[in-house]
Amino acid sequence: MVRFFYLVIISLLFFCTSKAQTLSEKIDNYISIELKKFNIPSVSVAVVNVDNLLFNKTYGKDVIIDRQYYIGSVSKSLTALGVLKLIEKDKLDFDSKLVDIIPNLNIAPYNDITIRHLLNQTSGIKKADGFITLPELKDIANKGYTINNVTVPGTSYQYSNLNYTLLGLVIEKVSGTSYQAYMQDKIFFDLNMPKSTAEIPNNVDAHYQYLGVPIETQQLEYSRTTIPAGFIISTTKDLANYVMMNLNNGRIYNRQVLGIPLLKQMHKVWNDGDFGYAMGWKQGKFNNQRMLQHLGTTATSNSGIFIFPDDKIGLVVLTNSNSMWFTEELMEGLLHIITNNEPKSTSNFEYYFRFAVVVIIAFLIAFFTFKTVRIVKSKQVYNTKKETKKVIIHIVLIILLFIGFPIITKIPFTAFLSFQPDIGFLILAISIVPIVLSLLKIYNTFNQQQ
């Protein structure tokens, strides 16, 4: 009987090990093939179930064990958890009004924004306004600050970083400490996330921007108040603990980090639907399975966290470059693997697109140089009225670019230029080169007529 019992245990252990190895092999094979299509310096992947880290590995040319990354808007989910813990301690309420918590914050025209509205991204604040840098809490208290919203709070969803920037200030006001200290003590410590930080660091591992190829650079300078919405730093191992807590009814390592009722609120879509924004999580479906996820992007990173509550499995993917499409395709392939489906192959589109951008920029520089030399050396008299019209037309086009771009994309062009400098520079160059050439023609003609 004892021998039979040991045989069963050994068989189960062999089965579990075999399954883990199969998962590892699938991920290894997939990433080793796909990364050749787009040169991302570093990709870290973690897979978890309710109480185990099933897989954690870093790939690429820039491999560092337990590498730190900027996690972008994945930060919002952790900020939401920080707010919910204050609610759990009865220090805050979902229906608490923002203006009651921060009195010198002026909101117009609808001043009844609540904590729930901020968490659900239903405050009516525009997406484009999410790129505004707010003053420190003490400066708002001393000088006041005005924020505009465009729809009645609670009636519609509009994603805006500003919602979670404001939640960071709420945490400071209610907890009586800095957002950074609160997150360290109440979130990262409780979740055993030792390499996570909400401080502005000086020594984060290398990160890159794409200018045709990945160029090592520095993260954009950012204000302390923007960290709650998009600049927390973490690792796949740390975030795996956070995902595990979400899968295990708010519990990890025999510690109840968040009560079950509040965790359910956190996962509940704002309008009670099957698809949409919850509180720091977006709910949808993948391969007909319920999925909660959040993506994050900074000027030098892409990230994603995914949980399947019904199947009790989760995925974390972090990269240290600003890929536009490839990273999300890679994440989709990994999601297929952890849901026991064949992964879809990524495309070469972004590689060729980035290469084309560089080629066109090089051509524009060469064209501009050639035309400039030719105009300066030329004794030709140009039609100044015609060239003046060209200047006016292109200036109008640039103005329309700065006005129309945020209307179409919901992102200010200056922000896009920071996040995707090669593409942004190309758009600017196409707009500005004709103006400069026309001005040179007018100047040259004016000199010859003297």
UniProtKB/TrEMBL annotation:
Q: Where is the signal peptide?
A: 1-20
| Transmembrane segments annotated in the record for this chain | 351-370, 391-411, 423-443
Q: What EC numbers are recorded for this enzyme?
A: 3.-.-.-
Q: What class of enzyme is it?
A: hydrolase
Q: Which SUPFAM superfamilies match?
A: beta-lactamase/transpeptidase-like (SSF56601)
Q: What is this protein called?
A: Serine hydrolase domain-containing protein
The protein's matches in PANTHER family, at most eight in alphabetical order, are given as:
BETA-LACTAMASE-RELATED DOMAIN-CONTAINING PROTEIN (PTHR46825:SF9), D-ALANYL-D-ALANINE-CARBOXYPEPTIDASE/ENDOPEPTIDASE AMPH (PTHR46825)
InterPro entries, per the entry: AmpC-like, Beta-lactam-related, Beta-lactam/transpept-like
Keywords associated with the record: Hydrolase, Membrane, Signal, Transmembrane, Transmembrane helix
Q: One short Pfam family name for this protein?
A: Beta-lactamase
Source species of the chain: Gelatiniphilus marinus
Q: Which domain of life is it from?
A: Bacteria
Query: What would be an example GO MF term here?
Result: hydrolase activity
Q: Where does the Beta-lactamase-related domain lie?
A: 37-323
